[in-house]
Amino acid sequence: MPKATWNGSVIAESDKTVVVEGNHYFPADALKMEFFKPSKLTSVCGWKGTASYYTVSVSGKENADAAWYYPTPKDAAKEIAGHVAFWKGVSVS
Q: DSSP character for 7?
């Protein structure tokens, strides 16, 4: 089962991820929300839409903007609605 880990803690785990462009998108209910803080960062993907971000916080350390999601993805990316992906040192295995 795919799991996302950072700073020694499992921050998300699910056997229902969606893989897009090599990234595992985890269902929102698979996230351990105690490790996530909303971020003000947004970015735009031409075919997925506007992404929002979370900062990951584990054991007093923060990884700014290390998780992203598309609150209202474009139709071409509708399968990742309600899902979150990771980067910036978060390990997905």
A: T
Show the tokens assigned to 20: 């897009």
pTM exceeds 0.90, yes or no: yes
What confidence tier does 69 reach under pLDDT thresholds 50, 70, 90?
Answer: very high
Q: Name the residue range of residue 24's domain.
A: 3-92
- CA–CA separation, 67 vs 73, rounded Å? 16
Distance CA 2, CA 70 (A): 20
Number of domains into which the chain is organized: 1
Nearest to 21 by CA among 90, 78, 85: 85
